[in-house]
Design brief:
By secondary structure, this protein is mostly beta strands. The protein has strands at about 5-15, 20-25, 30-35, 40-49. It has one domain (about 5-49). It is built from no helices and four strands. A two-stranded antiparallel ribbon has the order 1-4. A two-stranded antiparallel ribbon has the order 2-3. Strand 2 (about 20-25) and strand 3 form a beta hairpin. The model has no long low-confidence stretch (mean pLDDT about 95).
């Protein structure tokens, strides 16, 4: 409790592309959607407790 973390932001990156398919039976309906999660790379310099 009351700890402090010192860090540095190294930049933003994106994860690998994921493909999801949606299919509704008997409706002749298909959908392909892609997703890439954005995340921030952080370097932790020190933890002060």
């Amino acid at each position: 409790q009351g700890a402090k973390v010192i860090g540095k932001v190294l930049g933003g990156e994106r994860g690998p592309k994921l493909i999801a398919a949606q299919f509704r039976r008997r409706k002749n309906s298909r959908r392909r959607i892609g997703h890439r999660q954005s995340y921030t790379k952080v370097f932790i310099e020190s933890i002060q407790a």
